[in-house]
């Protein structure tokens, strides 16, 4: 069965990842690889998402499943999965990469990230964060006090350097 390769013109995407980030993506891949075959197919991705209580309508997950099915391939291996993820998210340190991540949060396409958006993402990631903690996170980064994060607010968070 033919496999599609997700090589992109921006080969720096993968090289910009840390070993820890690649390991996290590998752990996610292993969760999807329910048959321990070294490859994942759309059915495995859907089952893994459902077993984790995650929304299979998440735009990134939907795109992975859709692209596997469109490619005529029955499955993808980890390297293809890694290339696919990085090509979809781009370089997370670039403005374009951060915009792609922002768009994953802003699933209702309002141009800002609301409490509802952050709550959905936290749930999809399996994070147990109280509503108050989520509101506090928004309030810390919200530059105009409207209770939502603009792209500029989000960009500032993503590019902020933490000093100890």
From TrEMBL:
Family annotation (InterPro entries): CALM/Myosin/TropC-like, EF-hand-dom_pair, EF_Hand_1_Ca_BS, EF_hand_dom
Main localization, broad class: cytoplasm
Keywords: Calcium, Cytoplasm, Cytoskeleton, Repeat
Gene3D superfamilies: EF-hand
Entry's Gene Ontology cellular component terms: myosin II complex
GO terms of molecular function: calcium ion binding
Matches recorded under Pfam families: EF-hand_7 (PF13499)
Domain of life: Eukaryota
Family (UniProt): Belongs to the centrin family.
Protein's recorded name: Caltractin ICL1c
């Amino acid at each position: 069965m033919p496999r599609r390769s997700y090589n992109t013109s921006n080969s720096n995407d993968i090289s910009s990842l840390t070993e820890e980030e690649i390991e996290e993506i590998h752990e996610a891949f292993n969760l999807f690889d329910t048959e321990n075959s070294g490859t994942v197919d759309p059915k495995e991705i859907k089952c893994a998402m459902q077993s984790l209580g995650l929304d299979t309508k998440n735009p990134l997950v939907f795109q992975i499943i859709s692209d596997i099915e469109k490619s005529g391939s029955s499955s993808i291996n980890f390297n293809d999965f890694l290339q696919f993820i990085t090509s979809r998210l781009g370089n997370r340190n670039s403005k374009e990469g951060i915009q792609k991540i922002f768009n994953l949060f802003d699933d209702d396409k309002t141009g800002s990230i609301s409490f509802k958006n952050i709550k959905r993402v936290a749930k999809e990631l399996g994070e147990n964060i109280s509503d108050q903690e989520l509101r506090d996170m928004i309030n810390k980064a919200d530059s105009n006090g409207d209770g939502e994060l603009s792209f500029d607010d989000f960009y500032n968070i993503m590019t902020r350097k933490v000093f100890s």
